[in-house]
Design a protein that fits this description.
The complex is a heterodimer of chains A (about 70) and B (about 210). Chain A is α+β, with helices and mostly antiparallel strands. Helices cover about 25% and strands about 30% of the residues of chain A. Chain A has two helices and three strands; from the N terminus they run βαβαβ. Chain A has a three-stranded antiparallel β-sheet, with helices on one face. The N and C termini of chain A lie close together (about 10 Å). The mean pLDDT of chain A is about 95. In chain B, about 20% of the residues lie in helices and about 25% in strands. Chain B has a nine-stranded mixed β-sheet, sandwiched between helices. In chain B, strands 5-8 form a two-stranded antiparallel sheet. In chain B, a hairpin with a 5-residue loop joins β10 and β11 (about 180-185). Classes of the chains: A alpha+beta (about 70), B alpha/beta (about 210). The interface of A and B includes residues 14, 15, 17, 65 and 66 of A.
Protein backbone atom coordinates (compact mmCIF):
# COMPACT_ATOMS: atom_id res chain seq x y z
CA UNK A 1 0.00 0.00 0.00
CA UNK A 2 1.29 3.46 -0.89
CA UNK A 3 0.59 6.41 1.35
CA UNK A 4 -0.78 9.51 -0.27
CA UNK A 5 -2.14 12.90 0.65
CA UNK A 6 -4.75 14.82 -1.24
CA UNK A 7 -4.82 18.59 -0.72
CA UNK A 8 -8.10 20.23 -1.61
CA UNK A 9 -8.56 24.00 -1.73
CA UNK A 10 -11.10 26.52 -3.02
CA UNK A 11 -10.43 27.45 -6.64
CA UNK A 12 -8.74 30.76 -7.38
CA UNK A 13 -11.30 33.51 -7.63
CA UNK A 14 -13.88 31.76 -5.45
CA UNK A 15 -14.65 33.74 -2.33
CA UNK A 16 -13.41 31.80 0.71
CA UNK A 17 -15.12 33.36 3.75
CA UNK A 18 -13.41 30.89 6.07
CA UNK A 19 -9.98 32.05 4.94
CA UNK A 20 -11.11 35.68 5.26
CA UNK A 21 -12.34 35.08 8.84
CA UNK A 22 -9.01 33.54 9.81
CA UNK A 23 -7.13 36.40 8.17
CA UNK A 24 -9.18 39.02 10.02
CA UNK A 25 -8.48 37.32 13.37
CA UNK A 26 -4.71 37.39 12.94
CA UNK A 27 -3.88 41.05 13.80
CA UNK A 28 -5.71 40.74 17.14
CA UNK A 29 -3.33 37.90 18.03
CA UNK A 30 -0.28 39.94 17.04
CA UNK A 31 0.38 38.24 13.70
CA UNK A 32 1.15 40.95 11.18
CA UNK A 33 1.94 40.75 7.47
CA UNK A 34 -0.11 37.64 6.65
CA UNK A 35 -2.55 37.80 3.79
CA UNK A 36 -4.41 35.76 1.16
CA UNK A 37 -5.36 33.04 3.65
CA UNK A 38 -7.28 30.19 2.04
CA UNK A 39 -8.67 27.27 4.03
CA UNK A 40 -8.98 23.85 2.42
CA UNK A 41 -8.71 20.30 3.67
CA UNK A 42 -6.34 17.38 3.49
CA UNK A 43 -7.23 13.72 3.03
CA UNK A 44 -4.68 11.07 4.02
CA UNK A 45 -5.08 7.61 2.58
CA UNK A 46 -3.33 4.41 1.63
CA UNK A 47 -3.90 3.03 -1.84
CA UNK A 48 -2.89 -0.11 -3.73
CA UNK A 49 -3.02 1.83 -6.97
CA UNK A 50 -2.25 5.54 -6.72
CA UNK A 51 -2.99 5.89 -10.44
CA UNK A 52 -6.69 5.76 -9.60
CA UNK A 53 -6.54 8.70 -7.19
CA UNK A 54 -7.15 11.32 -9.90
CA UNK A 55 -10.49 9.77 -10.73
CA UNK A 56 -11.29 9.45 -7.03
CA UNK A 57 -10.64 13.17 -6.61
CA UNK A 58 -12.76 14.10 -9.62
CA UNK A 59 -15.67 11.96 -8.51
CA UNK A 60 -15.68 12.31 -4.75
CA UNK A 61 -12.89 13.97 -2.78
CA UNK A 62 -13.13 17.30 -4.60
CA UNK A 63 -15.86 19.11 -6.49
CA UNK A 64 -13.92 20.25 -9.57
CA UNK A 65 -16.36 23.11 -10.15
CA UNK A 66 -15.31 24.85 -6.95
CA UNK A 67 -12.14 23.13 -5.73
CA UNK A 68 -8.62 22.36 -6.95
CA UNK A 69 -6.83 19.27 -5.73
CA UNK A 70 -3.26 18.13 -5.57
CA UNK A 71 -2.19 14.53 -5.02
CA UNK A 72 1.05 13.92 -3.13
CA UNK A 73 2.36 10.37 -3.01
CA UNK A 74 4.59 9.84 0.01
CA UNK B 1 -50.17 12.54 -8.43
CA UNK B 2 -48.06 10.42 -6.07
CA UNK B 3 -44.80 11.86 -4.76
CA UNK B 4 -42.02 9.75 -3.29
CA UNK B 5 -39.83 11.43 -0.66
CA UNK B 6 -36.34 10.00 -0.24
CA UNK B 7 -34.92 9.44 3.22
CA UNK B 8 -31.16 9.23 3.78
CA UNK B 9 -29.41 8.67 7.09
CA UNK B 10 -29.36 12.26 8.38
CA UNK B 11 -32.38 13.57 6.47
CA UNK B 12 -34.57 15.66 8.75
CA UNK B 13 -37.23 17.35 6.62
CA UNK B 14 -38.74 14.27 5.01
CA UNK B 15 -41.84 14.29 7.25
CA UNK B 16 -42.72 17.88 6.38
CA UNK B 17 -42.04 17.08 2.72
CA UNK B 18 -44.43 14.10 2.88
CA UNK B 19 -47.10 16.31 4.39
CA UNK B 20 -46.49 19.07 1.83
CA UNK B 21 -46.58 16.68 -1.15
CA UNK B 22 -49.88 15.22 0.04
CA UNK B 23 -51.31 18.69 0.64
CA UNK B 24 -50.17 19.93 -2.78
CA UNK B 25 -50.80 16.96 -5.02
CA UNK B 26 -52.77 14.24 -3.20
CA UNK B 27 -50.48 11.40 -2.10
CA UNK B 28 -46.94 10.76 -0.91
CA UNK B 29 -44.74 7.90 0.27
CA UNK B 30 -41.45 7.74 2.12
CA UNK B 31 -38.64 5.97 0.25
CA UNK B 32 -35.60 4.63 2.10
CA UNK B 33 -32.41 5.46 0.24
CA UNK B 34 -31.52 1.77 -0.30
CA UNK B 35 -34.62 1.34 -2.45
CA UNK B 36 -33.98 0.93 -6.18
CA UNK B 37 -37.53 0.48 -7.41
CA UNK B 38 -39.32 3.82 -7.62
CA UNK B 39 -41.93 2.72 -10.15
CA UNK B 40 -44.82 3.31 -7.71
CA UNK B 41 -44.37 7.11 -7.67
CA UNK B 42 -44.85 9.88 -10.27
CA UNK B 43 -42.40 12.37 -8.80
CA UNK B 44 -39.50 12.46 -6.35
CA UNK B 45 -38.50 14.87 -3.61
CA UNK B 46 -34.94 14.84 -2.32
CA UNK B 47 -35.51 16.47 1.08
CA UNK B 48 -33.49 18.67 3.37
CA UNK B 49 -31.32 17.68 6.30
CA UNK B 50 -27.75 16.52 6.69
CA UNK B 51 -27.45 13.36 4.61
CA UNK B 52 -24.50 11.26 5.77
CA UNK B 53 -23.70 14.00 8.27
CA UNK B 54 -22.76 16.29 5.35
CA UNK B 55 -19.29 14.75 5.67
CA UNK B 56 -16.73 15.75 3.03
CA UNK B 57 -19.14 18.25 1.35
CA UNK B 58 -22.86 18.71 1.74
CA UNK B 59 -24.60 16.21 -0.52
CA UNK B 60 -21.39 14.57 -1.73
CA UNK B 61 -21.98 11.13 -0.20
CA UNK B 62 -25.75 10.83 -0.63
CA UNK B 63 -25.41 10.86 -4.40
CA UNK B 64 -23.92 7.35 -4.18
CA UNK B 65 -27.04 5.90 -2.54
CA UNK B 66 -28.80 3.17 -4.56
CA UNK B 67 -31.97 5.28 -4.81
CA UNK B 68 -30.02 8.11 -6.44
CA UNK B 69 -29.04 5.87 -9.38
CA UNK B 70 -32.74 5.32 -10.01
CA UNK B 71 -33.47 9.02 -9.49
CA UNK B 72 -30.90 9.89 -12.18
CA UNK B 73 -32.61 7.51 -14.61
CA UNK B 74 -36.06 8.82 -13.62
CA UNK B 75 -34.88 12.40 -14.21
CA UNK B 76 -33.36 11.51 -17.59
CA UNK B 77 -36.72 10.07 -18.64
CA UNK B 78 -38.39 13.39 -17.82
CA UNK B 79 -39.92 12.56 -14.42
CA UNK B 80 -40.32 15.43 -11.93
CA UNK B 81 -37.61 15.71 -9.28
CA UNK B 82 -37.50 18.42 -6.61
CA UNK B 83 -34.43 18.92 -4.41
CA UNK B 84 -34.84 21.06 -1.33
CA UNK B 85 -31.88 22.47 0.61
CA UNK B 86 -29.66 19.42 1.24
CA UNK B 87 -31.60 17.76 -1.58
CA UNK B 88 -30.56 20.62 -3.88
CA UNK B 89 -26.95 20.07 -2.81
CA UNK B 90 -27.31 16.34 -3.54
CA UNK B 91 -28.71 17.01 -7.04
CA UNK B 92 -25.84 19.42 -7.81
CA UNK B 93 -23.25 16.94 -6.55
CA UNK B 94 -24.90 14.22 -8.64
CA UNK B 95 -24.65 16.41 -11.74
CA UNK B 96 -28.44 16.48 -12.21
CA UNK B 97 -28.38 20.25 -11.71
CA UNK B 98 -25.67 22.77 -12.59
CA UNK B 99 -23.60 24.66 -10.03
CA UNK B 100 -22.61 24.14 -6.40
CA UNK B 101 -23.58 25.40 -2.95
CA UNK B 102 -20.87 27.03 -0.82
CA UNK B 103 -20.67 28.20 2.78
CA UNK B 104 -22.84 31.25 3.43
CA UNK B 105 -20.82 34.39 2.84
CA UNK B 106 -21.06 35.48 6.50
CA UNK B 107 -20.33 31.90 7.67
CA UNK B 108 -23.47 31.91 9.82
CA UNK B 109 -26.33 29.44 9.72
CA UNK B 110 -29.32 31.48 8.53
CA UNK B 111 -32.88 30.65 9.56
CA UNK B 112 -35.60 33.09 8.49
CA UNK B 113 -38.57 33.75 6.24
CA UNK B 114 -37.51 35.03 2.81
CA UNK B 115 -39.20 36.43 -0.28
CA UNK B 116 -38.54 34.65 -3.57
CA UNK B 117 -39.43 35.44 -7.14
CA UNK B 118 -40.44 32.55 -9.38
CA UNK B 119 -38.66 32.75 -12.75
CA UNK B 120 -39.98 31.10 -15.92
CA UNK B 121 -42.65 28.45 -16.11
CA UNK B 122 -46.30 28.90 -15.16
CA UNK B 123 -45.78 31.05 -12.07
CA UNK B 124 -43.29 33.43 -13.70
CA UNK B 125 -42.87 36.63 -11.69
CA UNK B 126 -44.87 35.49 -8.65
CA UNK B 127 -43.50 36.31 -5.23
CA UNK B 128 -43.32 33.53 -2.67
CA UNK B 129 -42.77 33.85 1.06
CA UNK B 130 -41.05 30.70 2.38
CA UNK B 131 -38.44 29.98 5.05
CA UNK B 132 -34.76 29.29 4.54
CA UNK B 133 -32.47 27.51 7.02
CA UNK B 134 -28.99 26.54 5.96
CA UNK B 135 -25.28 27.10 6.50
CA UNK B 136 -24.17 26.21 2.96
CA UNK B 137 -26.56 27.85 0.58
CA UNK B 138 -24.46 30.27 -1.43
CA UNK B 139 -25.19 29.28 -5.02
CA UNK B 140 -22.17 29.38 -7.28
CA UNK B 141 -21.40 28.66 -10.90
CA UNK B 142 -18.69 30.23 -13.07
CA UNK B 143 -19.82 33.45 -14.85
CA UNK B 144 -19.85 31.93 -18.34
CA UNK B 145 -22.00 29.03 -17.08
CA UNK B 146 -24.37 31.51 -15.38
CA UNK B 147 -24.80 33.35 -18.69
CA UNK B 148 -25.74 30.06 -20.32
CA UNK B 149 -28.17 29.15 -17.53
CA UNK B 150 -29.91 32.48 -17.80
CA UNK B 151 -30.06 32.31 -21.60
CA UNK B 152 -31.67 28.86 -21.40
CA UNK B 153 -34.16 29.90 -18.71
CA UNK B 154 -32.65 27.60 -16.09
CA UNK B 155 -32.90 30.02 -13.17
CA UNK B 156 -36.06 28.89 -11.35
CA UNK B 157 -36.11 31.12 -8.25
CA UNK B 158 -34.33 34.29 -7.22
CA UNK B 159 -34.17 35.99 -3.84
CA UNK B 160 -36.18 39.22 -3.93
CA UNK B 161 -34.25 42.47 -3.40
CA UNK B 162 -32.76 42.52 0.08
CA UNK B 163 -33.36 38.80 0.73
CA UNK B 164 -30.14 37.29 -0.63
CA UNK B 165 -28.42 36.90 2.72
CA UNK B 166 -26.22 33.92 1.85
CA UNK B 167 -24.35 35.68 -0.97
CA UNK B 168 -25.64 33.59 -3.89
CA UNK B 169 -24.44 34.73 -7.32
CA UNK B 170 -27.03 36.77 -9.22
CA UNK B 171 -29.52 36.26 -6.35
CA UNK B 172 -30.12 32.67 -7.46
CA UNK B 173 -32.14 30.64 -4.95
CA UNK B 174 -33.05 27.75 -7.23
CA UNK B 175 -32.31 26.32 -10.68
CA UNK B 176 -33.81 23.80 -13.09
CA UNK B 177 -32.25 21.43 -15.62
CA UNK B 178 -32.56 22.15 -19.33
CA UNK B 179 -35.75 20.11 -19.71
CA UNK B 180 -37.25 21.78 -16.65
CA UNK B 181 -38.27 18.56 -14.89
CA UNK B 182 -35.52 18.71 -12.25
CA UNK B 183 -35.65 21.68 -9.88
CA UNK B 184 -33.60 22.47 -6.79
CA UNK B 185 -33.80 25.34 -4.34
CA UNK B 186 -32.30 26.24 -0.97
CA UNK B 187 -35.40 27.64 0.81
CA UNK B 188 -37.98 25.20 2.15
CA UNK B 189 -41.38 25.15 0.40
CA UNK B 190 -42.41 22.13 2.53
CA UNK B 191 -42.44 24.37 5.61
CA UNK B 192 -44.87 26.82 3.97
CA UNK B 193 -47.99 24.81 3.18
CA UNK B 194 -50.29 25.61 6.10
CA UNK B 195 -51.80 28.97 7.14
CA UNK B 196 -50.88 28.05 10.73
CA UNK B 197 -47.22 28.65 9.92
CA UNK B 198 -47.86 31.91 8.08
CA UNK B 199 -47.69 31.10 4.38
CA UNK B 200 -48.98 28.49 1.91
CA UNK B 201 -46.81 29.72 -0.95
CA UNK B 202 -44.69 26.55 -0.79
CA UNK B 203 -47.52 24.53 -2.38
CA UNK B 204 -46.84 26.24 -5.71
CA UNK B 205 -43.30 24.90 -5.81
CA UNK B 206 -44.62 21.31 -5.75
CA UNK B 207 -47.53 22.00 -8.10
CA UNK B 208 -45.25 23.68 -10.67
CA UNK B 209 -43.69 20.25 -11.29
CA UNK B 210 -46.93 18.28 -11.62
CA UNK B 211 -47.07 18.75 -15.39
CA UNK B 212 -43.97 16.55 -15.74
CA UNK B 213 -45.66 13.57 -14.06
CA UNK B 214 -46.31 10.74 -16.51
Amino acid sequence: MAKARVLIRPKEGILDPQGKAVERALPALGFEGIEHVRVGRMVELEAEDTEALGELCEKLLANPLIEDYEIQTL
Amino acid sequence: MIWGVLQFPGSCDERDALHACAAASGESHLIWHQERDLSHVDGIVVPGGFSYGDYLRAGALARFSPAMTTVAKFAAEGGPVLGICNGFQVLCEAGLLPGALLRNVELRFICKQVELKAVGGEGDGERLSIPMKHGEGRYYAPPEQLDELEARGQVAYRYADGHNSNGSVRDIAGVRNEAGNVVGLMPHPEHAVDPLTGSTDGLQVFRALERFAA
